[in-house]
Design brief:
6-stranded parallel sheet; Rossmann fold; 541 residues; 17% strand; alpha/beta
């Protein structure tokens, strides 16, 4: 009877899920996993820090709809993924972290990096367990993946002791089949009819959509907006669900829309700090909230109609009813479109204003024009990223890879790594703040080593601007730990074997980006931008 080791059985279980790529930083406690992936033809992409491997696995999931997988060694290898797991948790991204673990034979003996890892993930993983028996590896993977794709989705964790990985089992050891749902759930037809009636009667409807449209339903979402002639907004998770420039897609007038709406159709979104906890919605407006997670319904903001269903499937159900279609242009929609034009004109004027260094709006507009509509762009920073994000021209769901509500810095290099590894012919970029670059900028070594020509650009004002602005509001005479200095980050990339340039004048920015792409090397354009004090902050809600 032919036999295989546990790592190969694990790799077969991953292949059953369609996984063709695994992100890792090598270590002695995961050699069985790595060997199994080599044997089964799963590509191994190795990084310089486990946090980046975790972020790459999240981006893989966002971009493909399949489970993103990271394997890390025991102890500090596992603990270095906690930030990535937290980010995936708050973004609702399915992701599997595989941790090495000391051999069972060494349990409680003080072996190298001995640690009970699952306890670490109780608050941020949907499932966390240790696989104690080689023959059951497939069962545990199935259980973990089932949890990862439940509801909105989220990260899961399995650790596998070294001797479980290397022990042998029969080559014919079966793997579970058909162990998770294949169809998204819709709503009861009676509920659908009630919502159709509300939408048909509304004079000032607003659609607000979230990450439930990352892997499907975009066409239906656009169809619903057009049927209703309703101004529509998306959070970062649904960017690209509407094609760039669609007349019903708002970007800058969301708060004005919330304040004036008489009905808000909320599709897989949170009433958290990004939306003022739902308090910026007209108090008289009817709120229809649709989510796969029952606990999100009515969170911070009452829902007049709370519907537990897949947002995409629910929109398809709505579209089956012709009576919700609105004839002609709504004055309400024209009003908000005019507000969008006015706000864009203000930003354009600011971008065009003379500046000794590169102004933030000019930076955002130029970078967005360079990347265009067909790129995948990871964003990694605070103020300059928020400014640039309003200019990005994304037309494909998931192609702006942002950290989400966790506000995590350091995501960009891992996100871009997965994107370029998956789509080597597509332009992949990163927009950094200088603070964000400091977390995982060493992944440029990974790009050079693996031959991945990612184009990065740093908005470098030499400070932690978001925090400095906030600090000044409270203690203006004692602002500390906020200044970084404008460091030559581009020279680090050059030293690693990439292409680097410094830009200090607005007219030099676009040519530098074009040269960076033309170099065919991993590239970083370091741009000196103006430091801007703001009188408000994300921390104020």
């Amino acid at each position: 009877m032919e036999r295989i080791h546990g790592g190969q059985l694990l790799a077969r279980a991953l292949r059953n899920e369609g996984v063709d790529m695994l992100f890792t930083l090598t270590g002695g406690h995961i050699i069985g996993i790595l060997d199994g992936c080599v044997t089964e033809g799963i590509r191994i992409v190795d990084v310089r820090h486990e946090q980046s491997a975790a972020h790459a696995a999240e981006a893989y999931s966002r971009l493909t709809g399949k489970i993103g997988v990271v394997a890390v060694t025991a102890g500090p290898g596992v603990t270095n993924t906690v930030t990535g797991v937290m980010n995936a948790y708050y973004s609702g991204t399915p992701m599997l972290v595989l941790g090495g673990r000391h051999p069972i034979a060494q349990e409680h003996t003080g072996g190298l990096q001995e640690m009970d890892h699952p306890q670490l993930f109780r608050s941020t993983a949907r499932f966390a367990a240790t696989v104690w028996e080689t023959a059951r590896i497939g069962e545990y993977v199935a259980a973990a993946v089932r949890h990862a794709f439940s509801g909105r989705g989220g990260p899961v964790f399995l650790d596998i002791p070294l001797d479980v990985q290397t022990s042998l089992v029969a080559d014919s050891t079966p793997l579970p089949k058909r162990y998770r749902a294949t169809e998204p759930s819709g709503a009861d037809p009676t509920v659908v009819l009630e919502v159709v009636s509300l939408l048909a009667q509304a004079e000032r409807p607003v659609i607000f959509a979230g990450s439930g449209f990352r892997h499907g339903g975009a066409k239906a979402l656009v169809g619903l907006a057009e049927a209703l002639e309703a101004p529509s907004f998306v959070n970062a998770g649904a960017r690209g669900a509407f094609p760039f420039g669609h007349p019903l897609l708002g970007n800058r007038a969301r708060l004005q829309a919330f304040a004036g709406a008489d009905l808000v159709l909320a599709l897989g979104v949170d009433w958290d700090f990004r939306t003022g906890y739902g308090r910026k919605i007209n108090s008289e407006a009817t709120v229809v909230q649709v989510d796969t997670e029952p606990t999100k319904i009515g969170w911070n903001r009452p829902a007049h109609h709370g519907v537990v269903a897949s947002p995409g499937r629910f929109v398809e159900q709505l579209l089956a009813h012709d009576e919700l279609r609105h004839d002609g242009v709504r004055p309400w929609t024209e009003q908000l479109q005019a507000a969008e034009v006015e706000k864009l004109s203000t930003a354009q004027a600011e971008a065009d204003a003379p500046s000794e260094l590169v102004g933030p709006q000019f930076f955002g507009r130029t970078v967005a024009d360079f990347f265009g509509t067909d790129s995948i762009v990871a964003v990694d920073g605070g103020d300059i990223v928020a400014t640039t994000a309003k200019w990005l021209q994304v037309s494909t769901p998931g192609h702006v890879l942002e950290p989400g509500p966790a506000g995590t810095l350091g995501t960009g290099p891992g996100f871009a790594l997965a994107a370029k590894a998956l789509f080597p012919e597509r332009r992949v970029g990163i927009v950094f703040g200088d603070g964000g670059f400091g977390f995982n900028g060493m992944e440029y070594d990974t790009y050079v080593r693996l031959g991945l020509p990612v184009v990065g650009v740093v908005g470098n004002d030499g400070v932690w601007n978001n925090i400095k602005s906030f600090h000044r509001m409270f203690y203006p005479e004692r602002v500390v730990a906020s200044d970084l200095g404008r460091r030559p980050y581009h020279t680090m990339v050059e030293a690693l074997g990439g292409h680097g340039e410094l830009v200090t004048k607005p007219e030099d920015l676009l040519p530098a980006l074009e040269r960076a792409e033309a170099s065919k090397l991993p590239a970083l354009v370091n741009v000196h931008i103006d430091e801007t004090f703001r009188a408000s902050s994300n921390y104020s809600g």
